């Protein structure tokens, strides 16, 4: 007969106190990240680890550390760890720290709103937004993608969405859009509303009302991250969005060459005006590397992303090379992160997405670092 062991729950808890969550630098027990800790008389331990995001870059390392810590407790025979996450909104800290104007209201059920911007068009803003959204969804997060680019609403094409959103008549709230889902992401786009052959002239108030609809009359449900593909530049949509909903943070996409001071100054002034914290810069089309060569060709110049990140006193989150499969992914509606998850560029997008999720989690846990919010006079 197998001898029954008795493992003390408190011994297991003590062991778990040796595992430190890298962002908040406290142990998992203190942070309340351990749930359903249980052990049977045979010494089989079960527990759930609840992280701040399913896309945490250290997820595997934390899981391993938990397994090892538990396995070291005398009497333990097996360890069954479930990894889970609860994404908190960083928005309320924005509200507290950055004092947005009147009328800013959260989107019900949406924890974090991340704006993807760029100084000019054609730099890969939509490509970055799409691959950020799909990467987060692949990590198990609940993700929405809102395409507010009135000049080139190409998110439906890039996500391979052919159906229109369904319209539901809510008894009290009026008309509601049910966003189509592609690659695990809920998608809403200006492209659904406008006829590409009948270009519209968008005026401020019209844009404002469409942005209102996109925020409050779309059935987003519960989302961890709502990614917003912005029109290029610093116009009405940016202002409308920031005046309407608490934007968690912005990602700025540029090519290496695009550091024209005039554009940077404009972008800087805009972010300052809307009080949106910077999450970081993505340098896209950084270089081209032929498949059969080690040599990198810096077609659009070198180092621009870093210069831009330094100017904004923020982080260079990623450098994405020029890769034909990235463009093909956009054209065929199967983003590279979905079509070829193992490709180096997909891995680069996934790493970038995890860093974004981690930064947002830190913002939610600690509040926004006021230094991350653009301040007038700090530009040089
Ligand atoms: N890293 C890349 N490698 C190859 N092609 C890219 C890359 N990034 C973007 N593209 C292509 O460049 C074009 C412009 O990108 P897009 O994301 O639409 O830019 P934006 O939204 O800033 O206007 C698209 O055809 C897209 O597929
Ligand atoms: Mg675009």
Description:
The chain is α/β, with parallel strands linked by helices. It folds into two domains: 9-85, GMP Synthetase, Chain A, domain 3; 91-372, P-loop containing nucleotide triphosphate hydrolases (Rossmann fold). It has helices at residues 9-16, 59-71, 91-98, 125-138, 155-159, 204-216, 236-244, 261-274, 304-311, 324-332, 336-339, 344-366, and strands spanning 20-21, 26-27, 34-39, 44-51, 78-85, 110-118, 143-147, 166-170, 174-178, 181-182, 185-189, 223-229, 249-254, 278-284, 316-320. The strands form four sheets. Strands 10-11-7-12-6-13-14-15 form an eight-stranded mixed β-sheet, sandwiched between helices. The chain has a three-stranded mixed β-sheet with strand order 3-4-5, with helices on one face. It has a two-stranded antiparallel ribbon with strand order 1-2. α4 (125-138) packs across α12. The radius of gyration is 23 Å and the shape is globular. The chain starts with 8 loop residues before the first helix and ends in a 14-residue tail after the last helix. Bound molecules: adenosine-5'-diphosphate and magnesium ion. Magnesium ion is lined by residues 125-126, 149, 152, 154.
What's a concise summary of this model?
This protein has helices spanning 9-16, 59-71, 91-98, 125-138, 155-159, 204-216, 236-244, 261-274, 304-311, 324-332, 336-339, 344-366; strands at residues 20-21, 26-27, 34-39, 44-51, 78-85, 110-118, 143-147, 166-170, 174-178, 181-182, 185-189, 223-229, 249-254, 278-284, 316-320.
